Structures are given as C-alpha cells and as structure tokens.
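User: Reviewer 2 asked us to show a designed sequence for the structure in our supplementary figure. I'm pasting the structure tokens here. Could you produce the per-position amino acids so we can include them in the response letter?
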C-alpha cells in the first residue's frame, strides 16, 4: 500500500493528502483530493489491498456519489468488478475494465479513469477503457 500511496502522490496533482488508517498496521489508505467530479468540491478514495491480491478502490464525495473498483471472489459479480455511481450498489456490480493485477498498474488505471471523469465532469465513462492503464 506504500507503493499505491507514492503513486497517487506523484501522479495526481489534485491529491491533497494520502494517509494510512494505522501507521504500524495499515489496513486502509485514504486519499483526499482538493476537487471532485462534477459538482463535488472534494472527493476521497478509500483503498485496501490484500495480500491475496484482492483490492478495493472506493470513491466517495461531498454530494454522496459512490463508485468503486473491486477485485475479490463472490457469488453475485465477476471477480474484477465495478460498482456504478451514484450508490455503488454491492448487488449490481459489473465486469471491470481493469484487467491488470499488479498494485502499481491497478492504481494508475484507477487514477486515469478518475482523471477522465474529472476532466469531462461526468461519471459516464469510468469503466469504459480498454484494459487501462
């Protein structure tokens, strides 16, 4: 998760801060942005990466929009899946466009997809890329 923290701090200019929930035994990385997509004036990613390779990149903003990219096995969605905005409903996840599995590449893919949404001020194309990054 330190690699993920370093990537978001280096590659995304509107990242304000990236902090771990616990310095000694981190389970989550919180990434704060100084702006959000559309009407949001701030947003945050809550990121978890497990030793098994499972992950969660959960976006939330001040206007209560949620979406996330996840990788974990379950019975109601593909292993790599996307929970669509505005609620990121856990029962209606769809196949993720992110096929890579390395933490560095997944992080870069999520940031690029976020950046696209930020620049277009739209959530419509968050999960439409061809195997980013």
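Assistant: Here is a per-position design you can include in the supplement:
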């Amino acid at each position: 998760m330190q690699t993920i923290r370093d990537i978001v701090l280096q590659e995304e200019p509107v990242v304000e801060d990236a902090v771990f929930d616990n310095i000694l035994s981190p389970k989550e990385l919180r990434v704060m942005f100084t702006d959000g997509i559309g009407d949001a004036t701030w947003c945050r990613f809550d990121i978890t990466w497990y030793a098994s390779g499972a992950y969660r990149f959960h976006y939330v903003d001040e206007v209560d929009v949620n979406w996330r990219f996840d990788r974990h096995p379950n019975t109601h969605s593909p292993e790599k899946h996307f929970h669509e905005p505005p609620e990121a409903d856990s029962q209606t996840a769809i196949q993720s466009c992110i096929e890579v599995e390395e933490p560095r590449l997944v992080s870069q893919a999520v940031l690029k997809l976020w950046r696209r949404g930020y620049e277009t001020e739209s959530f419509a194309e968050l999960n439409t890329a061809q195997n980013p990054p």
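For the response letter, you might also mention the following. The chain has two helices and seven strands. The two ends are 18 Å apart (CA to CA).
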